[in-house]
C-alpha cells in the first residue's frame, strides 16, 4: 500500500495513525522514519493514544504511561538519515528483529522517496521506481504488508483531489503498489480539520473513490468516513 500527499499535509500523521491502529489491534509495527527523529515519531504515537498535543506530552508522563500500557501491540521506531539507506538496510534490521522473535506484522516507511535504490541509477525517476519495486520485493519475501509514504508534486497542494498523475517524479510508484491513497487538504481544510482521501488504486476492491476525512493533526486524529454516513455528509457540508 501507499499514502501519497504533498509536503505539510499530514502523510507522516497518516502513517502513524495506521501504525497506532495496528498496535491497538495487537499487531507489532516496524516504523522506519527518514525525516523525523525517533523521539518525535514516538511523541506522535503518544498524541494519537492520549489526545494530548505533542508539546504537552512531557507534562503528563503518568497519563501517557497509563494509556500506552493498555495497547496490546508493539511499536518499534527506527530512524535513518535521509538518502543514507537502501531496502537492504531495512531488510537487515527486520531480519535482526525476527532473530529476536520480534517479527513485525506491518512495516511503515516515512518516506520511501528519501531512500536510495540498491543499484546506482542516475535518472531520479528511474531510481524512485526501483526503490518501490525493491520495497514490494522485500514485503513479498517477508510476507509482511508495507505502507510507504510518498511525496506528490508541489502543485498538488492546490488540488481538490490528488490524482495519480500528480505522484512526484515516477508513475512506477503507482504501478508497483496494490493500494494507493492520496490525501488532499487546502488551506480552508486545515482550518476546518477536513480533507479528502482519494483511492487512486486498489487491487482488492473499488478505486477512483474520494472519501471525506476528519483530520486534526494537532491532536493526531484522522478518521475516514463513508460518503453517505452521517459524519461523512456533515464533513462534506463543512468543506
Structure description:
This protein is an alpha/beta fold. The protein is built from eight helices and nine strands. The model has no long low-confidence stretch (mean pLDDT 90).
Topology (elements, then pairings):
Layout: E1 2-5, H1 11-24, E2 28-33, H2 38-50, H3 61-69, E3 74-79, H4 87-99, E4 106-110, H5 124-142, E5 146-151, H6 172-176, E6 179-184, H7 187-192, E7 194-202, E8 209-216, E9 221-224, H8 230-238
Parallel strand pairs: 1-5, 1-6, 2-3, 2-4, 4-5
Antiparallel strand pairs: 6-7, 7-8, 8-9
Helix pairs in contact: 1-2
The run of helices and strands is EHEHHEHEHEHEHEEEH
Structural class: alpha/beta
Mean pLDDT: 90
Shape: globular
Low-confidence stretches: none
* Count of strand segments: 9
Number of helices: 8
**Main sheet summary:** 9 strands, mixed
Q: Beta-sheet strand percentage?
A: 15-25%
Give me the side-by-side strand order of the main sheet.
3-2-4-5-1-6-7-8-9
Helix content: 25-40%
Gyration radius, in Å: 18 Å
- What is the terminal separation in angstroms? 27 Å
Short description:
37% of the residues lie in helices and 23% in strands. It has helices at 11-24, 38-50, 61-69, 87-99, 124-142, 172-176, 187-192, 230-238, and strands at 2-5, 28-33, 74-79, 106-110, 146-151, 179-184, 194-202, 209-216, 221-224. The mean pLDDT is 90.
What keyword list fits this structure?
single chain, 239 residues, alpha/beta, 9-stranded mixed β-sheet, 8 helices, 9 strands, globular
Amino acid at each position: 500500500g501507499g499514502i501519497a500527499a504533498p509536503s505539510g499535509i499530514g502523510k507522516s500523521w497518516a502513517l502513524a495513525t495506521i501504525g497506532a491502529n495496528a498496535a491497538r489491534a495487537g499487531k507489532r509495527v516496524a516504523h522506519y522514519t527518514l525525516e523525523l527523529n525517533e523521539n518525535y515519531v514516538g511523541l506522535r504515537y503518544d498524541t494519537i493514544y492520549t489526545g494530548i498535543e505533542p508539546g504537552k506530552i512531557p507534562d503528563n508522563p503518568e497519563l501517557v504511561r497509563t494509556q500506552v500500557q493498555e495497547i496490546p501491540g508493539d511499536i518499534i521506531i527506527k530512524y535513518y538519515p535521509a538518502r543514507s539507506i537502501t531496502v537492504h538496510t531495512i531488510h537487515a534490521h527486520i531480519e535482526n528483529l525476527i532473530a529476536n522473535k520480534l517479527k513485525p506484522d506491518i512495516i511503515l516507511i516515512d518516506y520511501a522517496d528519501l531512500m536510495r535504490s540498491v543499484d546506482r541509477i542516475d535518472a531520479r525517476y528511474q531510481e524512485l521506481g526501483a526503490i518501490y519495486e525493491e520495497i514490494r520485493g522485500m514485503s513479498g519475501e517477508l510476507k509482511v504488508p508495507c505502507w510507504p509514504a510518498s511525496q506528490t508534486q508541489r502543485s498538488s497542494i492546490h488540488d481538490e483531489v490528488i490524482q495519480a498523475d500528480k505522484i512526484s517524479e515516477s508513475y512506477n510508484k503507482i504501478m508497483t503498489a496494490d493500494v494507493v491513497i492520496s490525501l488532499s487538504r487546502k488551506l480552508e481544510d486545515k482550518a476546518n480539520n477536513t480533507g479528502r482521501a482519494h483511492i487512486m488504486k486498489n487491487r482488492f476492491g473499488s478505486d477512483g473513490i474520494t472519501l471525506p476525512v476528519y483530520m486534526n493533526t494537532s491532536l493526531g486524529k484522522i478518521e475516514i468516513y463513508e460518503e453517505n454516513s452521517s459524519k461523512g455528509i456533515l464533513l462534506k457540508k463543512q468543506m
